[in-house]
Automatic annotation (TrEMBL):
Protein name from the UniProt record: Rieske (2Fe-2S) protein
Keyword Oxidoreductase in record: yes
Keywords, ordered alphabetically: 2Fe-2S, Iron, Iron-sulfur, Metal-binding, Oxidoreductase
Matching PANTHER family: 3-KETOSTEROID-9-ALPHA-MONOOXYGENASE, OXYGENASE COMPONENT, IRON-SULFUR DOMAIN CONTAINING PROTEIN
Gene3D superfamilies: Rieske [2Fe-2S] iron-sulphur domain (2.102.10.10)
Gene source species: Paludisphaera mucosa
InterPro entries according to UniProt: Cholesterol_7-desaturase (IPR050584), Rieske_2Fe-2S (IPR017941), Rieske_2Fe-2S_sf (IPR036922)
Domain named Rieske: residues: 5-99
PROSITE patterns given in the database record: RIESKE (PS51296)
Amino acid sequence: MGGWLYLCRFDEIPEGRGRTVEAAGARLAVLRDGDAVTVLFDRCPHAGGSLGSGWIEDHEVLCPLHRWRFRLRDGRCTTIPGHSANVVESRVESGEVWGRIGQG
Ligand code: FES
C-alpha cells in the first residue's frame, strides 16, 4: 500500500452524507461536507457501524447505528472521547477523490 488510490467522483457523494467504497481491500467511508471531502475507514470504533452510511452535522459524521459523532477534521470521537475513527489521507483532483492508506 502507500500509493494513491482512486475512490470515486466527487459528484457521486451526496452533500452532507457519504458513501462506502472499497480500495486495495479496505472499506472506506468517503464523506462530503460542502466542498470538503473526508475519508475514514468505514468501521465505527464502537461496534463496527458503516460511517459511509452516516450523515454529517456541524462538521461531524454521525454513525448510523448508535449516533456516536466523529469530527471530520481528525476523526476524534466527540461522544465518547478516546474512540477515534481512522482518517485516510485524501485529495480531490479534477473532480476525482483519491485516498492514500497509510503505512500503518
Ligand atoms: S457502531 Fe457506531 S455508534 Fe455504535
